[in-house]
Design a protein that fits this description.
By secondary structure, this protein is mainly α. It has a domain of about 45 residues. The chain contains four helices and no strands. About 0% of the residues are buried.
């Protein structure tokens, strides 16, 4: 169902209380859109971190023990090592 603002706006103005200003309505819409945008960005950031972590663990799991030893990681520490690499601040490297 699509809405045409030319038809909806007059009805909204007629049914809105007299002390309800457009600025308040616009602020509510703006806040809702900002929350939606923020949550969307957070979701995609989480998704990218999850994909990166999963791929990193897969690559490290495929390495043999001597390769892991060369980078100072034990097989039991792979998940913690991958998580640390992802959450590490780039300025610390």
């Amino acid at each position: 169902m699509t809405f045409n603002m030319k038809h909806v706006a007059p009805v909204a103005r007629q049914t809105a209380p007299s002390d309800y200003h457009i600025a308040e309505w616009a602020a509510l819409v703006g806040t809702s859109l900002a929350r939606f945008g923020t949550n969307t960005v957070r979701f995609f950031a989480w998704l990218m971190d999850t994909v990166q972590f999963t791929r990193m663990v897969q690559v490290l799991q495929q390495m043999n023990d001597s390769q892991l030893a060369a980078i100072g990681v034990k097989r039991s520490e792979i998940s913690a090592y991958a998580r640390n690499l992802i959450t590490q601040n780039p300025s610390e490297s």
